[in-house]
Design brief:
The chain is α+β, with helices and mostly antiparallel strands. The protein has a domain at 257-368. 60% of the residues lie in helices and 14% in strands. It is built from 13 helices and nine strands. It has helices spanning 12-38, 42-62, 89-98, 135-159, 164-178, 180-187, 231-234, 238-254, 257-283, 289-329, 331-343, 345-350, 359-368; strands spanning 7-10, 66-69, 81-87, 113-120, 123-130, 189-194, 199-203, 218-221, 226-230. The strands form three sheets. It has a four-stranded mixed β-sheet. A three-stranded antiparallel β-sheet has the order 3-4-5. α1 runs antiparallel to α2, α5 runs antiparallel to α9 and α8 (238-254) packs across α11. It is flat and about 70 Å long. Bound molecules: zinc ion. Zinc ion is lined by residues 247, 251, 318, 321, 355.
């Protein structure tokens, strides 16, 4: 029997987030308001006033000062295998900023969150708990809050000048946002084993928004040669699991890592360059609007070309991974796996192409393949 001891505790982590978000927003909007007042733009001042009210209403629900905690335990005598993973400071900091569809439930940034997984045959149970919070953790939270608040105060002044700081911040923030799905899945996964070829991790079904999680059956993570499987795939039927593992293994084996890395670096580099150059032009006082529009147009063209190339490449990668899977587990098993996905209600509901390639095209490709 699982025990749910729910109690309400003070969250010094949320106190930290509230302080820095409020200070940042107020300084930023105060500066904007002053600027608009100076040029007698009253309607803009009213908009900023409404925004401040919206911020005051929203953030306390996103970062409540008192949160309910429950302590769910995995009955280790019942499950065959149990695994744990600790989420530390950086993971909790990231979740605070980017996992914004739910309220932030961390108590202290310096204590750990523990992701637990119990496995018995086709039964998987996940738990997600705060570990014990000591006084020293709270003290660290408060020290961090004070230091960060001072930092954020000066930072927000710089930021509202729309200069290079503005550009750099925006680019780092958008990059962390673009790769949100990969980073969150990585944070919310528990490693359960490895062989010479790859590490295997199971993803906690955290559900960013309904459907977003469900369409990811698994993915290959090149950083430490991992295959991440969705919980329902791992503890679901053998057919689906066998295919997804073989397919992801195909990605790990067939993809060109140097190319992937270069592709990633190019994107990051151009994005930072774009945001920073816009900020730089504003800061040095470039008035003619076309000089500011120019980086925007160049960036838009870059994105168009880049995304078109990526789409073509990822399509090719998908077929390559399926070819590997056919050689690994046989054509029959691959077809069965693809048919299982096609029948899956989660897949149908999501209405999204699997990794950019339509499921029927993939089935057709495998059927025609002669190797
Ligand atoms: Zn794939």
């Amino acid at each position: 029997m699982k025990k749910n001891n729910t109690k309400k505790v003070f969250s010094s982590a949320n106190f930290f987030f509230l302080c820095i978000v409020f200070i940042f927003s107020f300084i930023y909007y105060y500066n904007e308001w002053q600027r608009n007042r100076a040029i007698n733009n009253n309607s803009a001042s009213i908009i900023f006033f409404i925004m401040i009210i919206a911020i005051c209403a929203y953030f306390p629900t996103r970062f409540p000062l008192f949160i309910k905690t429950k302590n769910e335990k995995i009955d280790e005598s019942y499950y065959d295998d149990t695994y744990y993973k600790e989420l530390g400071f950086w993971a909790q900091l990231y979740l605070g900023f980017f996992h914004w569809t739910k309220y932030n439930d961390s108590i202290s940034l310096f204590s750990k969150k523990v992701l637990g997984l119990g496995i018995k045959n086709r039964e998987c149970k996940f738990t997600y708990n705060n570990s014990e919070v000591k006084n020293i953790h709270r003290i660290f939270d408060f020290i961090l809050t004070v230091i960060s608040s001072i930092g954020v105060f000066f930072f927000a002044q710089e930021f509202s000048k729309m200069g290079v700081v503005f550009g750099l911040t925006l680019s780092v923030f958008s990059l962390l946002f673009v790769f949100r799905n990969i980073i969150l899945n990585r944070i919310f996964s528990v490693k359960i084993g490895n062989d010479e070829e790859y590490n295997l991790s199971i993803m906690y079904p955290y559900c960013m928004l309904d459907g977003i999680m469900s369409r990811k059956y698994g993915f290959a993570y090149y950083g430490d040669n991992s295959i991440l499987l969705q919980k329902d795939v791992f503890c679901g039927g053998e057919i689906l699991k066998k295919y997804i593992v073989a397919h992801e293994k195909g990605h790990l084996k067939t993809s060109n890592r140097v190319k992937n890395l270069l592709q990633l670096i190019t994107f990051i580099f151009v994005t930072i360059l774009f945001f920073t150059s816009v900020g730089f032009m504003v800061q040095i006082g470039v008035k003619r609007i076309e000089f500011i529009i120019l980086p925007l147009v160049i960036y838009a063209i870059f994105l168009y070309v880049y995304l078109t190339l990526i789409r073509k490449k990822s399509e090719k990668d998908e077929f390559l991974a399926d070819v590997y899977a056919i050689k690994d587990i046989g054509k029959e098993a691959v077809l069965n796996g693809l048919e299982a996905i096609k029948k899956d209600t989660l897949y149908k509901r999501s209405g999204v192409k699997l990794s950019g390639v339509d499921i029927d095209r993939r089935i057709e490709f495998v059927k025609k393949y002669k190797g």
